[in-house]
Amino acid sequence: DMKTVRQALIDEIHYPISEGFIENKLLSRGISPDDGLTIEVLNSNEFKGAVADCLWSLIEAPSISESDKSISLGDREIILRKVNAIYQSIGEKAASFSDRPMVTIL
User: Fold this and answer.
1) pTM for this structure?
2) Read out DSSP for 25-92?
């Protein structure tokens, strides 16, 4: 029984993220979540990008505390460094905390 791309991405993240979100990120990068995992997919820029997208979503989350896992500000900085290393390795723009949309109340 071959591991799916979806399961591989879940395994890469370590933190609880909804399966629907994971599927969306894979699809947005042109990867079918139900495809069998191959070395080529695992090493592809698309898969690496989906990993970074999911990790970035953890940084954006207001506060995560689920199944004894919580993400502190220090954790977020570590995750951000990892995210940016991935984005840069696949030729994409680095993300930053300032990329967060600012909400203005008029």
Assistant:
1) 0.80
2) HHHHTT--TTSBP-HHHHTSHHHHHHHHHHHHHHHHSS--EETTEE--HHHHHHHHHHHHHHHHHTT-
